[in-house]
Amino acid sequence: MYKAKVTVTLRPSILDPKGKAAHHALQNLGLNEVQQVRIGKFIELDVDAKDEAAAKAVVESACAQLLANEVMEDFEIVIES
Amino acid sequence: MYKAKVTVTLRPSILDPKGKAAHHALQNLGLNEVQQVRIGKFIELDVDAKDEAAAKAVVESACAQLLANEVMEDFEIVIES
């Protein structure tokens, strides 16, 4: 059993209204040191595969088909055993 | 300027309906190797601080006050320069 950690982030050119709202709220709380906020997804998957490469292939397929929107988002996969 | 990467995850005892829905959808796509899915948040912050410790303190404060709900969620902070 492998554990996959996936971070899905909006591409830099895409506006992030959720991040903008969080940034604004942090400024209202007095945390003016924060210059920018961008919010993405962090997805943990348990994958049953025979080796790390097979696990990574499954997770890549899951990201491409469902978990990330490749038009607007990038994803990064880390596999742990 | 420091870059902070924050992962916010639901505590293990908390139900994750978003993750359950994603798991179900992956099974419908034939990705039966995936045994469990949990979905959290990945937040990137640019922080203007004099050193790494100061940047971390700002981000911890941001997480505790706004970005994470500590009743249900855990967060992990990584600071990069």
Query: Poorly predicted ranges of chain A (pLDDT <50, ≥5 residues)?
Result: none
The CATH class of chain A is: Alpha Beta
* Percent range of helical residues of chain A: 25-40%
Largest interface: A-B, 36 and 35 residues
Order of helices and strands of chain A: EHEHE
Quaternary form: homodimer
What does the average pLDDT of chain A come to? Answer: 97
Number of folding domains of chain A? 1
Given the helix and strand composition of chain A, which structural class is it?
A: alpha+beta
Give me the count of strands of chain A: 3
> Rg of chain A, please?
16 Å
Task: Please tell me what the overall shape of chain A is.
Answer: elongated
- Kindly report the spatial arrangement of strands forming the biggest sheet of chain A: 2-1-3
* CATH-level-4 superfamily name of chain A: Phosphoribosylformylglycinamidine synthase subunit PurS
CATH-assigned fold name of chain A: Mth169, Chain: A
> From the 3D coordinates, which CATH architecture of chain A would you assign?
2-Layer Sandwich
- Counted by DSSP, the helix tally of chain A is 2
Helices and strands in order:
The structure is a homodimer of 81-residue chains.
Chain A: E1 2-10, H1 17-28, E2 34-47, H2 52-67, E3 73-80
Antiparallel strand pairs in A: 1-2, 1-3
Pathway (chains A, B): Purine metabolism; IMP biosynthesis via de novo pathway; 5-amino-1-(5-phospho-D-ribosyl)imidazole from N(2)-formyl-N(1)-(5-phospho-D-ribosyl)glycinamide: step 1/2
Subcellular location (chains A, B): Cytoplasm
Subunit structure (chains A, B): Part of the FGAM synthase complex composed of 1 PurL, 1 PurQ and 2 PurS subunits.
